[in-house]
Amino acid sequence: MTLLGSSDLDVFPLALGGNVFGWTADRDSSFEILDAYTAGGGDFIDTADGYSAWAPANGGGESETLIGEWLASRKPSGVTIATKVSSHPEFRGLSASNVRAAAEASLKRLGVDSIDLYYAHFDDLETPLEETVAAFGQLVTDGLVRNIGVSNYSADRIRSWTSISQETGVPLPVAIQPHYNLVHREDAEESIIPVAEEFGMSLVPYYALASGFLTGKYRSQDAAGTSPRAEGAAKYATEHGLRILAELERIAGEHEASIASVSLAWLRAQPTVAAPLASASRAEQVADLLVGATLELTADEVQALNTVSEWSPANV
Description:
Helix content: 40-55%
Structural class: alpha/beta
Radius of gyration: 19 Å
Distance between the termini: 36 Å
Mean pLDDT: 95
Order of helices and strands: EEEHEHEEEHEHEHEHEHHHEHH
Number of strands: 12
Strand content: 5-15%
């Protein structure tokens, strides 16, 4: 278990992504995935109000609704729920009125009294940041939200958020959700991790498995178009990406683990990372995620992966 930033949220060091619920995982599959995750000790479920509005016939909120139905059915204890605002078709942006309305809608879909961790999903440059920060602070004051997080924010905007929070007495964000994995390192390591270290925040990186590429399943760009997951993964099947897979495979063999588990273990070993975020479309995929939450790599193994995945023109 690991604490998120300065909060009292003590979570399993692998967050289960709910982006697939109501999209590539139907209700029964979603329940099976959630059951497998919690049966293995997991207790940190991540979603967003916009999941999965992009799927045909969906309008947004499907993931939260399924999670809410699962919570009502299973009544698990000690589960941390994180969700996000700004991408639901009916609640776009981060104006004060929208943040409040979206939070109330999420609470209703989830069937909970308060949201453990509420993220600003995407920055909204058209709304004054002071307004957004105050709106999140009011949700905490009113008990609708316990902790604040930011997702897809630049380092400069996170610093601005913290400055406003400190000036106005609003609780600081405790978590940052950036795009970060073995094939996408530069942004997080150059700017986001230093901010997290400065303000005592934790990272919960999304795309932890690079849309499935870091499972080792997609080793050719020809896979693009065969499924929604393959579309996102195949673009990484470059010479550089395949070298990373080869090193992952070597280390996985040493631990009798999967490539996915080693990828997650590497991410967990990075500064300020509390819990990589990964999803599964089938219950049988959950086991590798759970191993990734507990597998400990040696310092040499972490360094070997650092070296092979380091970006440079020569490596691309």
